[in-house]
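subagent[fold] <- orchestrator: predict structure for attached chain, return tokens only, no commentary.
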Amino acid sequence: EEITGVPAGDIAQAARLYAHSKPASIHWGVPIDMTPAVTPLCQAIAALWALTGNLDVPGGNVISRFAFDAVAYALPGAEGVIKLKNKEQ
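subagent[fold] -> orchestrator:
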């Protein structure tokens, strides 16, 4: 409670609700992406998906790639927007 400002009972209730809801999903966007501890936070969310059986199921969370392996924001020196093997298909 000191760290989050949320009563421990509320956190436990939310955890039980998510753990027992099938299917369930947790989505994130800019607020989570901008958190100082974004990497461990995202790892924890992905672990919750998997541990509760809500990963890669209808109505749950899905980890996917860009269509055709296209990366619109490639770093300098990286492969182009669409990989050559996909251009040939």
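orchestrator: received. Logging for downstream: The helical segments are 8-20, 30-33, 38-51, 84-87. Residues 8-87 form one domain.
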